[in-house]
Amino acid sequence: MKILDTDDARIAYTEGGHGDNVVLLLHGSFCADWFAPAGRRLTDDGYRVLRVHRAGYGQSKDLAGGVGVSAHAEHAVKVLEDAGVQRAHVVGHSTGASVALQLGHARPDLVRSLVLLEAAFPYAPDEPKNPAMPRAIEAAREGDYERGFDLFLGGVSGPDFRKVLVRELGEKGLREAVASSQYFFTQEGPAFGAWHFGPAEAADVTMPVLLVVGGEGARLNTPHAARSAQLASWLRHSETRVLPGLSHALPLEDPTLIAATIKEFIDRRTD
């Protein structure tokens, strides 16, 4: 684990593998290790993989009390610079996908392609309203962050999400994810909610983009398919892939398929 100090954060990241194709992995909320299993598979397949612990999660620290999306993107830039990488394929999940989008907008010179797994933001006007979300927020307001954690992830990933976390990351991984729930509800959520990204910003995202959606979202009434469809209408060079049987927890539900999906998209990029 390598450590970088910035003005507003202490950022930890891992580096593995070799090769010209560099993949930068930006995880979603609650869990710093959403991409750990898929990252190992990409490394085994011959990619150089940088896996970031975003500020506030894992071994990284948020020193500003709620860094925003632009700051997270700047941290990713510093990771690439520290690793001596001029351009990378950037993969993000959920809130990490929003950070990847911001990076593609602000620093397109650094991004060869984007793979966005169920981006958390921006919201779409026609998205379904999942009743678990306001219940999770209310639980957090009452100080019951673990209940908020269960309601939130259960609402977007189904009732077995804890089993999935334990299967891939162990009991320790689950405990760390639960412990991160307070940071998500009190600091990250509000900071990300203040972020703006629309058609004007999307016009700067000129690299190829793969939007990945879990097919179970329709059954669970989650908003991510609508959010991905909105992004597809804004982004000039995007394509969408729906993965049947997977929910918002897709990086851990089937890390082999996620790694293969990333690999297939990257291998078609010849720039």
Record keyword descriptors for this entry.
271 residues; alpha/beta; 9-stranded mixed beta sheet; 12 helices; 9 strands; 18% strand
Strand and helix map with partners:
Blueprint: E1 2-5, E2 9-16, E3 22-26, H1 36-44, E4 48-53, E5 61-62, H2 69-82, E6 88-93, H3 95-106, E7 111-117, H4 132-141, H5 145-157, H6 161-179, H7 181-193, H8 199-202, E8 209-214, H9 217-220, H10 224-234, E9 238-243, H11 250-253, H12 255-267
Parallel strand pairs: 3-4, 3-6, 6-7, 7-8, 8-9
Antiparallel strand pairs: 1-2, 2-4, 2-5
Helix pairs in contact: 1-12, 2-3, 4-5, 5-6
Instruction: State the separation between the terminal residues, measured CA to CA.
Output: 30 Å
Fraction in helix: 40-55%
Cα-based radius of gyration, to the nearest Å: 17 Å
Structural class comes to: alpha/beta
Low-confidence stretches: none
Counting DSSP H or I runs of 4 or more residues, the number of helices is 12
Q: Average the pLDDT over all residues and give the rounded result.
A: 97
Number of strands: 9
Q: Main β-sheet: number of strands, strand sense, barrel status?
A: 9 strands, mixed
Principal-axis shape equals: globular
Q: Report the β-strand fraction as a percent range.
A: 15-25%
SSE string: EEEHEEHEHEHHHHHEHHEHH
